[in-house]
Design goal:
Length: 174
Amino acid sequence: MHGMMLWAPGESLVMTEITPTLPPVGDVFVRLHGAAVNKKDYWVMKGKYPGIVYPLILGSDGAGVVDNREVIINPGINWGDSERYFGPGFKILGMPDHGTFAQMVKVPEQNLYDKPAHLNWLEAAALPVAGVTAYRAMFTRGKALEGERMLITGIGGGVAAMALLFGIAHKMEV
């Protein structure tokens, strides 16, 4: 299997041969058909993200196939017991575990969701981090209700764009 390895901060990603290990019980390998870049990947490459351990394969967002099932990956691993905030065991795919800038990625099976049929691989791969972050901010933390008014600052980013789409779908004044 090949992946785009980051060996040290400030360096370029390098295509590297990786020997996959057997997944523990409950984990599966997703054969990736699409992956997306996040702001997190940029900060890890610069060496400015907490807890970085090199070398690593970046990438949190991805979509692919497991046993003929088309899936998107929820990259938030071990969120914890509270919906409102993550617990001490929380981590995001792509650090410290290898991420989606590879041919395959190992993830907990419970973190897989059916890929919406109307989305192509790249569209589906771009959803997870921005989509989950916007959803949690709006509905889990913000308790947004249909018909309410919502101001989105910094609309140029992925999370803000997803918040805009969720707000419109939720019949909010955005």
